[in-house]
Design a protein that fits this description.
mainly beta, Immunoglobulin-like, 4-stranded antiparallel sheet, elongated
């Protein structure tokens, strides 16, 4: 004898089955990816960022306020069902709103973070430039000088590259000279001098300058030696031309012995125009508070002595730190 369920009971069974399938589907659906990060990240500090994923293949990217990017950072650890990054915010990371993007298998998430800090990346500008040319026999010597300024108030510029092009009246180049400056302190200037020679007597119309600011560091300033009795000396053999820059070099560091110096200078006329520049160095040991005679003679003889009125000197010192 066959029995059949009432229509209402069949409908109830189907509803239960349908409800069970829906619950199973909802349980299997993964949670959306979410980034957990502080609202502010500070220059020179570490910010902890995480996402709700257990995959080491997750990647974190940062887009700074100025458009610079930091990409493809993999998690430092995966713990407690989270992929975790320790984001080292650079000393000179651009301040302002940065956008974090995390990409994991099956999802992507973004979050905005404010980068806070007062460190300003160094920027080196050419404040003044000039040159003097002198024909000697079948060749021409050109003395050139540049005054460079690091405009950052708190970031030293490291290993600054300088390219000087010598331009003819038709805009063609006749020569180039390159230099590398180990450091220009924050808010400070550097006086770069040099000399270049050409066959014949080409007419130099202007200087074309390219500056690579190089690396950067917080402004722990290098203590430069002091100068005294600085004076311009004509050439003993050709008194119409500048022969040297001479004076006293003083170690004003309170504790360290000065072992050597690299010196560069720019020479100006009475109106402050650049006539050229030169270089020199000294290798000696100066105890704190002692002094020695210095002389810069390289690159100066194309400068007419009667036009030279003043000089600015920059010094890169090295100190004895061991023993």
């Amino acid at each position: 004898m066959r029995h059949s369920l009432p229509t209402s009971a069949v409908a109830l069974c189907l509803a239960v089955v349908a409800t069970g399938v829906g619950a199973a589907s909802l349980a299997a659906k993964p949670s959306p990816l979410r980034i957990t990060a502080p609202g502010r990240a500070f220059q020179g500090k570490v910010a902890v960022v995480s996402v709700n994923s257990t995959s080491f293949s997750c990647k974190l990217s940062v887009r700074y306020a100025n458009g610079d990017k930091l990409t493809n950072m993999f998690p430092t650890t995966v713990q407690k069902a989270k992929a975790v990054w320790k984001w080292s915010v650079a000393d000179f990371a651009p301040a302002g709103q940065a956008r974090l993007t995390a990409a994991c298998p099956g999802g992507k998430a973004t979050k905005s973070v404010i980068v806070v800090g007062g460190l300003i990346a160094p920027r080196v500008e050419v404040v003044k430039k000039g040159f003097s040319a002198r024909v000697k026999g079948g060749s021409e010597s050109v003395s050139y000088g540049l005054v460079l300024q690091n405009t950052s108030p708190n970031g030293n510029a490291l290993n600054v590259g300088v390219l000087v092009n010598f331009v003819l009246p038709d805009n063609h180049l006749i020569g180039s000279a390159s230099s590398q400056i180990p450091i220009i302190n924050a808010g400070s200037s550097y006086n770069l001098g040099g000399e270049i020679s050409f066959i014949g007597a080409p007419t130099i119309a202007r200087l074309e300058i390219s500056v690579d600011p190089g690396g950067r560091a917080r402004s722990d300033k290098v203590v430069a030696p002091g100068l005294d009795n600085v004076h311009l000396v004509p050439s003993p053999f050709e008194p119409a031309w500048l022969g040297s820059i001479e004076g006293d070099l003083i170690n004003i560091h309170p504790t360290l012995t000065l072992t050597n110096t690299t010196m560069s200078c720019v020479v100006f006329d009475a109106n402050g125009n650049v006539l050229g520049g030169g270089t020199g160095s000294g290798y000696f040991k100066l105890l704190p508070g002692t002094r020695a005679f210095f002389k810069l003679a390289s690159g100066l003889d194309p400068i007419p002595f009667t036009q030279a009125a003043s000089v600015a000197i920059s010094i890169i010192p090295q100190y004895q730190t061991g023993g």
